[in-house]
């Protein structure tokens, strides 16, 4: 899920975490007793669910695969919820504040086609092969080396991302509520560990569905009340054009003909092929974090329907994420009543308070940082003079600021619970996926092949506890080693694109050989790392990766993913052509064309997955035309 | 989830009922005392009352429909 976090979170936002924490001298909001009660009840509920489900998670099939008995609705909501972390909510709201509805691409073209492809085309192969994991599929298709490489990379990625996510969330709680970093980390980590270790994947899925409802219940009020205050869609547009002197904020595609024409610095080819194909298909169809939820479905039809159901909700998420960001552009106000302008995290960190009351730790750095913003000169002077009513807030705080603006006691607690729930669903997803991959794809084949079923369940439970402990360590490491955050977040795009090419060719080209799959994946990862390092050492090299001098960092991930995917496919193709293919009989159940798909019982049209997929396509196309 | 045991929708229903009545109750208190949080906007809309009500109604629906032991 972290790989789909916006550039506001990946390019310098939480880079200066220590400075950011230090800058948070005055919390954004104060919780009342009612808010605390709302949050406490939520924690009691998730732990109750964990204890309740403990008795139904005794076998490995129950613990790791939730007994494969989820309905399409449960699997679909869980599928979307595992991706709906609080950092995504806040990060994309911040991106909408900066870039307008261009940020919506990550929810529509960057998700919907891939989700439909997973449900309609790929799911039968995952499901028929009865694999427990994506690395497990690689093992069946390409052999053990490919499985171990994929499993090791994935396990590492999950643990590190869980830690980074945990720490970044604790920073948010510090900034918004003034909570201690350690308190936030320990409480949330203990709760997630308890309910996932007790109830396994079933508990994680149960809680993800609960969290999905809470996220909507807590966050939906912000756009509703914001739109009332802005005067509806017309009022919002008028105000944004008046303030920003541009109508680019309302167009998805119109200004993507050239990198320099839009504030995000992306080109439509990068959006369509890099984001819409390499990153999106990589994430939604091969990342085990989300695929695991669908594999838990009770039958093939439910497994195919789950991503389609999820896609309806995914298309709706911009309403609670992108719209609050846009509303923040025109509605947020400074204490003196002037329009509040949000800035980058680097500016907030540069203007952190010093030891003396009302003083800045480094006025020179603050002045330089603010000079790059559009903050009015008078306001910059107020900040430099340490005026208490001259607060600086970052883009990522757009959503919490909007919550504080509209939500009173009780409702604010619900909004904060939504953020906590988003964080916990993401972390539970990381940890449960890690536990499955560790147990099935690393421990079982490499360490102990002959354990009993209960032994593997015990290993799974233990790996959750140890995984969370390592995550906490990784989180604290991030606090003290600036820059690690960037590397951890880059892991996603570095790994996922080669994996996509490897799985797609394995699933749809029977000529792909074992050694080609392994080499393609390995060299693809090396190639992707090489590009990352190349641009990291000299940012000017971005123009070669993104094919334009005007490209901005946001373009890097999408183009790097695209080239890594194509490179991997090329390696697999070339190596396959000079190595001996596997007999077709061995590929049954794994590859398109040699796998007889199970006949599904006929159902009325309104229960047919193709009917709903067509409806999704119609809505998807309509939305892109409306917001062209 | 299906099969025996408590369904997730029941848990959701219970939570929404609790939240709904808490927030609705606070909204009534606000209305009765006229004490609104000073920095919150649009208090004239009495959001806690109607949003708390919506949550409570949804919660009651799910709690009753998916209560344990109910034949489906």
Supply database-style keywords.
A: 628 residues, mainly alpha, Sodium/glucose cotransporter, 2 domains, globular, B: 72 residues, 0% strand, elongated
Biggest sheet descriptor of chain B: none
Overall body shape of chain B: elongated
Proportion of β residues of chain B?
Answer: under 5%
Radius of gyration of chain A: 24 Å
Order of helices and strands of chain B: HH
Number of domains of chain A: 2
C-alpha termini separation of chain B: 13 Å
What is the top-level CATH class of the largest domain in chain A?
A: Mainly Alpha
- The average pLDDT of chain A is 85
Present the secondary structure layout.
The complex is a heterodimer of chains A (628) and B (72).
Chain A: H1 7-10, H2 17-23, H3 33-54, H4 60-65, H5 72-81, H6 86-99, H7 112-128, H8 134-142, H9 144-177, H10 181-219, H11 221-230, H12 232-244, H13 268-286, H14 288-295, H15 300-316, H16 318-331, H17 345-350, H18 363-371, H19 377-384, H20 398-406, H21 411-447, H22 453-480, H23 484-508, H24 514-537, H25 542-545, H26 553-577, H27 609-626
Helix pairs in contact in A: 2-9, 3-10, 3-21, 5-10, 5-14, 5-15, 6-16, 7-13, 7-15, 7-27, 8-9, 9-10, 9-21, 9-22, 9-23, 9-24, 10-21, 10-22, 11-12, 11-16, 11-20, 12-16, 13-23, 13-26, 14-21, 15-27, 16-20, 21-22, 23-24, 23-26, 24-26
Chain B: H1 8-33, H2 47-65
Helix pairs in contact in B: 1-2
């Amino acid at each position: 899920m972290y790989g789909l976090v916006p550039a506001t979170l990946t390019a310098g936002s939480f880079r200066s975490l220590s400075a950011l924490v230090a800058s948070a001298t005055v919390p954004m909001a104060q919780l009342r007793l009612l808010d605390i009660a709302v949050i406490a009840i939520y924690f009691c509920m998730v732990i109750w669910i964990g204890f309740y489900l403990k008795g139904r998670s005794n076998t490995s099939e129950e613990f790791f695969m939730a007994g494969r008995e989820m309905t399409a609705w449960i699997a679909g909501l869980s599928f979307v919820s595992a991706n709906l972390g609080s950092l995504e909510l806040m990060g994309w709201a911040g991106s909408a504040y900066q870039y307008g509805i261009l940020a919506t691409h990550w929810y529509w073209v960057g998700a919907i086609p891939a989700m439909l492809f997973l449900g309609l085309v790929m799911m039968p192969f995952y499901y028929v092969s009865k694999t427990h994991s994506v690395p497990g599929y690689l093992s069946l298709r390409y052999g053990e080396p490919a499985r171990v490489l994929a499993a090791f990379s994935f396990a590492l990625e999950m643990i590190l991302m869980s830690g980074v996510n945990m720490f970044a969330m604790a920073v948010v709680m510090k900034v918004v509520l003034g909570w201690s970093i350690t308190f936030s980390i320990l409480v949330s980590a203990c709760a997630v560990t308890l309910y996932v270790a007790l109830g396994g994947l079933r508990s994680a899925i149960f809680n993800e569905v609960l969290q999905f409802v809470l996220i909507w219940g807590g966050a939906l009020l912000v756009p509703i009340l914001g739109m009332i205050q802005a005067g509806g869609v017309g009022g919002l547009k008028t105000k944004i054009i008046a303030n920003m002197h541009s109508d680019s904020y309302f167009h998805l595609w119109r200004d993507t003909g050239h990198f320099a024409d839009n504030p995000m610095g992306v080109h439509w080819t990068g959006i369509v092929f890099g984001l819409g194909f390499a990153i999106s298909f990589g994430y939604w169809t091969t990342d085990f974090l989300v695929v695991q939820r669908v594999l838990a479905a009770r039958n093939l039809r439910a497994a195919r329907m789950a991503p389609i159901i999820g896609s309806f909700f995914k298309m709706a998420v911009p309403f609670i994420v992108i719209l609050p960001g846009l509303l923040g552009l025109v509605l947020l106000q400074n204490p003196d009543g002037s329009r509040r302008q949000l800035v980058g995290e680097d500016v907030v960190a540069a203007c952190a308070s010093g030891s003396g009351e009302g003083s800045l730790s480094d006025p020179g750095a603050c002045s330089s940082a603010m000079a790059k913003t559009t903050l009015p000169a008078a306001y910059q002077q107020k900040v430099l003079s340490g005026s208490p009513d001259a607060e600086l807030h970052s883009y990522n705080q757009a959503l919490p600021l909007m919550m504080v603006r509209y939500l009173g006691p009780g409702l604010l607690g619900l909004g904060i619970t939504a953020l906590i729930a988003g964080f916990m669903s993401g972390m539970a997803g990381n940890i449960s996926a890690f536990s499955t991959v560790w147990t099935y794809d690393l421990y079982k084949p490499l360490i102990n092949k002959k354990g009993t079923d209960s032994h593997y369940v015990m290993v799974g439970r233990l790996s959750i506890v140890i995984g969370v402990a390592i995550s906490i360590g990784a989180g604290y490491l991030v606090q003290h080693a600036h820059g690690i955050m960037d590397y951890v977040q880059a892991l996603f795009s570095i790994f996922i694109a080669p994996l996509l090419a490897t799985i797609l060719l394995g699933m749809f080209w029977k000529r792909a050989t074992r050694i080609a799959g392994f080499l393609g994946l390995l060299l693809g990862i090396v190639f992707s790392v090489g590009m990352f390092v190349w641009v990291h050492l000299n940012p000017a090299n971005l123009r070669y990766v993104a094919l334009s001098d005007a490209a901005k960092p946001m373009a890097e991930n999408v183009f790097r993913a695209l080239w890594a995917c194509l490179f991997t496919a090329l390696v697999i193709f070339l190596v396959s052509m000079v190595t001996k293919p596997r007999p077709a009989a061995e590929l049954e159940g794994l590859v398109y064309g040699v796998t007889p798909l199970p006949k599904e019982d006929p159902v009325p049209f309104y229960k047919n997955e193709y009917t709903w997929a067509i409806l999704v396509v119609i809505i998807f196309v309509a939305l892109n035309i409306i917001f062209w | 989830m299906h099969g025996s045991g408590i369904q997730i929708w029941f848990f959701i229903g219970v939570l929404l009922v609790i939240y709904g009545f808490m927030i609705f109750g606070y909204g009534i208190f606000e209305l009765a005392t006229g004490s609104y949080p000073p920095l919150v906007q649009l208090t004239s809309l009495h959001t806690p009352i109607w949003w708390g009500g919506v949550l409570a109604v949804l919660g009651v629906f799910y709690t009753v429909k998916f209560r344990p032991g109910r034949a489906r």
